[in-house]
């Protein structure tokens, strides 16, 4: 039996459409990418003038000590966890998130403690939030007596 020889057809892949698609994807990603520029906020903090403001009777004051311990309206909390802080704020406010809230922190208070208080207020829906600072009471007495 005699077999006929078939001529081999060369198979070649045309890469031109593939290259076109890759370039289009490259252009698409270059155009749609947003570049985040790290910037720092320039904040001018107010200077304390020595006057004390009276806390309104219908407001909530969170006092944070140097060690990060919390007190709400001069009642100390058993621990400084977020859950305890939220429960105490909810109990004092009776669920009224429209009450003004004042966060008073010592000058040496860790930043995390202030952020935790702000986070608790935000999770409970408080929008009227003020932040104050209070220096160490012992600073005025330099050992005079």
Structural commentary:
This protein has a domain at 60-136: Nucleotidyltransferase, domain 5 (2-Layer Sandwich). The protein contains three helices and five strands; from the N terminus they run αβββαβαβ. The protein has helices at 16-32, 82-93, 111-123; strands at 60-64, 70-72, 75-76, 101-106, 129-134. A five-stranded mixed sheet has the order 3-2-1-4-5, with helices on one face. α2 (82-93) crosses α3 (111-123).
Oligomer: single chain
Largest sheet: 5 strands, mixed
- Major sheet: arrangement of strands: 3-2-1-4-5
Structural class: alpha/beta
Pattern of helices and strands: HEEEHEHE
CATH architecture label of the domain at 60-136: 2-Layer Sandwich
Distance between the termini: 124 Å
Rg calc: 32 Å
DSSP, total strands: 5
Principal-axes shape call: rod-shaped
Helix content: 25-40%
- Beta-strand proportion: 15-25%
Essential attributes:
five-stranded mixed sheet, 145 residues, disordered C terminus, rod-shaped, alpha/beta, 29% helix, 3 helices, Nucleotidyltransferase, domain 5, 5 strands, 15% strand
Provide a concise account of the structure shown:
The protein has 145 residues and is of the alpha/beta class.
Write the layout of secondary structure elements.
Blueprint: H1 16-32, E1 60-64, E2 70-72, E3 75-76, H2 82-93, E4 101-106, H3 111-123, E5 129-134
Parallel strand pairs: 1-4, 4-5
Antiparallel strand pairs: 1-2, 2-3
